[in-house]
Input
Amino acid sequence: MVLRRVLVRAAWLLASLLLASFLIFAVANALPGDMAQILLGTNAAPGEAEALRERLGLNRPFLVRYLEWLGGVLQLDFGNSYIGNRPIGPLIAARLEVTLSLTILGMLLAVLVALPIGAYAAARRRHLDGAAVSALSQVGLAIPAFWAGIWLVIIFAVQLRWLPASGYVSYWDSIGQWLLHLILPVISLALVQGSVISRYVRSSVIEVMQEDYFRTARAVGWSKTRALVRHGLRNIAISLLTVIGLQLATLLVGAIIIEQVFALNGLGSTLLRAVSGRDLGVVQAIVLLLVWSVLIINFLVDVAYQIIDPRLRRAAEAR
Amino acid sequence: MKRATLYLGLSLIGLVVLLAVVGIFWTPYSPTAMVGPRLARPGWPHLLGTDGFGADIFSRIINGAKIVLLVGIVSVSGAALVGVPTGIFAGMKRGWAGEIPARLADILYGFPALLLAILFAAALGGSTWTAMLAISISTVPAFVRIARAATLQVMSQGYVEAARLSGTPSPSVAVRHVLPNIAPVLGVQASVSFGIAILAEAGLSYLGLGSRASEPTWGRMLREAQDYIFSEPIQALWPGLAIAVATMGFNLLGDGLRDLLDPRLRELR
Output
């Protein structure tokens, strides 16, 4: 029964991947008008524009171009950039490491910090310190990650000179330098993400603490922590999964902005350079990659749900 | 104390609204002109100092409040105008006609506003309007989902059943019974979406994809302030503070409204 539900969900995933790719292609190719003219500027000779259209394949019908593009993408061929006429695939692949390092470390740190903080805020919710932690997370929610980043730079790079203000060193060149350069960007991402996640953790811990099984465990003399760890983890894991799925898009978007703050040359910087150069081939490829990864990871989260949550499994079997 | 969240949220929003309304008629100086020495410290006559160009920062903050509220109001009400009727329709209609909009909203939910705005900026050139359009479109699915869920709940109530059985046509059931009953939930959603819209706009103009240079927004001011983090870090303080105050105002308002609606949930958050 679980399998059937997963298959249905997979069909929806396919549909949404297709729809997203079509929307992205449509916006990038139908809205701008005559791409060749835009790239050449207004004082180009008419023949030049025609030649460029021919080279970029802009003369053929929209739907044919979409299907060709999609076919290429499925074979990891994203076409060539409008500017410089270089293959887009390798261009993206070279930048992937920066963005992946940033997002993965950012999410890890956020979860690691949010779990104890959220649990603490829940356990002490009727005390001043618990309330203070909740209030602090409310502040974290309202602060733009890039503003936090700017201040981290001002404090730890400019004033204290403890950490580099910008730049990236590849993991393969030096793990120490890699980590050193990523500390500030990762903290600025995790600050905001952690605030959101800690609120979810807090409410799911409170929920567990109001359950009968928790009260029974306490009544027979278990400590709060022991009762939570033995009985509450599954519940908390489920709500953690939800929030990670939900936050993934915000995390990726946050990473794009954070890359700008710390001059990290990742996907975000490449994307923004392409936007200012109006290199729509590169723009649509990177946006597609980001949106598809959000959709696919959300699908995986859904599947993990089915496995973790026995209530869902039983509900499915009862049908 | 009971409604502290709500009142704190309302007063923060009130502050931003006050700045914005004042900004429509008057700012101490022109927000875009060179009116003093460059990079003056906070003091008199420039309350918050001047920026790297010599423009008055306080005037620019006031002007930014205007733009932030404009973006929030236009994008949230635009999204509600499309999303709410769609959601109600999806909630009232049985079968595939109700299923399709709900599924579409599920697919588009989580399409980040920023990516959409980047697409628009690449295709059309970035401006406050492309930013608003992108934020608005990416907010629609949230309204569809919440309106549909709330409608489904209302539809199982006795009074709706009675209205339907007595032959009231669907559109008037929607307007007379469904809409008033789901309005509070929509209010919460609108408040939350407003906060998200403010952050999205700030991010966009920080990246240089939102407002043009002639319209100083808080995000754009932060972008410019970053050039002076070595000599005048205080430049990076005011715009970020303004963004945080405005966002927190709407977040708290949303939380406060939710508490009012469902006091049982109070503990959980």
Observations:
- Residues 68 and 144 of chain B are 24 Å apart (CA to CA).
- The interface with chain A takes residues 103, 106-107, 110-115, 118-124, 126, 195, 199, 202-203, 206-209, 219, 222, 225-226, 229-230, 233, 236, 240, 243-245, 247-248, 251-252, 255, 267-269 of chain B (CB under 8 Å).
- The longest helix of chain B spans residues 170-206.
- Chain B has a mean pLDDT of 87.
